[in-house]
């Protein structure tokens, strides 16, 4: 099971790399331009939020350190390199999570109390699934924001790019 989940995460990283490459082509002012109807208001903040979600659920929550979690702070000077660096940290944390729970995918991670209405005792598999689907939800918002700002993304909804 561990190998399958690692492969799945590698595919997600490949898709994320395509998004990073696209974002590097977007002018910095558009990465930071606020579009209130989408995501976290801007492309760069939305993508940083995705990294934050991995950090919270698979790092802080899964290791019972909710009170130690600090959100990624994105200021007006943050660029794609900044978000890439945060995701490098996320990648290390995901590997730590996968190794920690390698044989316990259905074992509840019991917290003292629920967090903002989320389950009090989710399983590692639920947390892993949640973070991945959450990333793709926001990826859709990011490419919609880019289109709205006049930066149409390349087509990347095909499997071909994952197997090269």
UniProtKB/TrEMBL annotation:
Transmembrane segments: none annotated. The keyword Metal-binding applies. Keywords: Metal-binding. InterPro entries: DinB, DinB/YfiT-like. One of its GO terms (molecular function) is metal ion binding. Pfam families: DinB. A divalent metal cation binds at residues 49, 134, 138. Belongs to the DinB family. This is Damage-inducible protein DinB. It comes from Cohnella candidum.
């Amino acid at each position: 099971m561990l190998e399958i989940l690692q492969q799945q995460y590698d595919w997600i990283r490949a898709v994320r790399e395509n998004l990073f490459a696209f974002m590097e082509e977007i002018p910095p002012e558009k990465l930071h331009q606020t579009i209130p109807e989408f995501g976290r208001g801007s492309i760069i903040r939305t993508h940083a939020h995705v990294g934050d979600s991995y950090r919270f659920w698979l790092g802080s929550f899964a290791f019972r350190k909710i009170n130690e979690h600090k959100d990624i702070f994105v200021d007006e000077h943050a660029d794609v390199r900044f978000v890439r660096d945060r995701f490098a940290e996320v990648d290390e944390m995901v590997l730590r999570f996968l190794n920690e729970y390698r044989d316990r995918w259905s074992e509840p991670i019991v917290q003292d109390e629920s967090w903002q209405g989320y389950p009090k005792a989710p399983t590692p598999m639920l947390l892993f699934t949640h973070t991945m689907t959450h990333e793709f939800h926001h990826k859709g918002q990011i490419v919609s924001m880019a289109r709205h700002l006049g930066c149409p993304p390349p087509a990347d909804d095909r499997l071909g790019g994952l197997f090269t």
